[in-house]
Amino acid sequence: MIARLIQPVFKSLALVLPALIPSWRFFDAVSASPRLDYVLLRAPTDDSTDWQPFRPRPEHLSFPAMLRRMLWNAERNESLFLVSCSERLVQNPSAHSQSEILRRIARHLAPQADATPYLQVRLRFVLPEEDGTLASHVAYLSPVLAIEDLL
Questions:
Q1: What distances in angstroms separate CA 140 from CA 11, 14, 19, 89, 134, one per listed residue?
Q2: What ranges make up the beta strands (E) of the chain?
Q3: N or C: less crowded end of the chain, CB within 10 Å?
Q4: Quick one: CA dihedral 73, 75, 77, 79, positive or negative?
Q5: For residues 137 and 78, what is the distance between their CA atoms, to the nearest angstrom?
Q6: Is-contact 125 137, C-beta < 8 A?
Q7: CA-to-CA distance for 27 and 64, rounded, in angstroms?
Q8: Rounded to 5 degrees, what are φ and ψ at 146?
Q9: 60 contacts 46 by C-beta, under 8 angstroms
Q10: Contact (Cβ atoms closer than 8 angstroms) between residue 83 and residue 101
Q11: Pair 37, 52: CB distance under 8 Å
C-alpha cells in the first residue's frame, strides 16, 4: 500500500531532478564564449574605435541581488540568447542570427540614438595565447546601420 503511494512521487522526482540539477555532459565541448561589442556613430562614415562591451557582467553582486536574479533575470536570459545567436553566426552564418543580434542591441541602445543614430556591432573571442597572455580575435563585424531602421 505504501509502496503504491510512494512510487508516483519517485517517478515525479525522477522527472524534475534533471531540470533542477543539470548535467554538464549536456555540452559537447567547452570553448571560448563570444563577446559582443558595439560602437555608436554620428554618421555611417565615422571611424570610431570607442567599442563598448554590450551588457558586461557586474564585478560584484550582493547576496539579495543574487537571490533576486535566481528568480527573475530577463536581461541575462536575453544576453544568453545573444550568445547563442553569436555562436550560430560564427559556425553557420544566417540572416536570422545577424538580425536578432542587431535588433536587440539597437532596442537596448535606442534611448541614446539621438546624438549617435548609427550602430556597428562586432563579435570577438578572447583566447589565451601560448605565452599566457590573452588575445582578442574579431570573428564578425557588422555593417554600419541606422538604429531606427533596426527597430
A1: 47, 43, 34, 8, 19
A2: 35-41, 52-53, 118-128, 134-141, 145-146
A3: N
A4: negative
A5: 24
A6: yes
A7: 30
A8: -75, 130
A9: no
A10: no
A11: yes
C-alpha cell at 137: 580575435
Residue tagged 555540452 (cell numbers): 27
Please give the Cα distance from 15 to 21 (Å, whole number).
11
Tens digit of pLDDT per residue, the chain (151 long)? Answer: 666 767 777 777 777 777 677 665 555 656 677 889 988 888 888 877 889 898 888 888 888 888 888 888 788 888 888 888 888 888 888 888 888 888 988 888 888 767 778 888 899 888 877 787 888 888 888 888 888 888 7
The Cα 36–Cα 55 span in angstroms is: 8
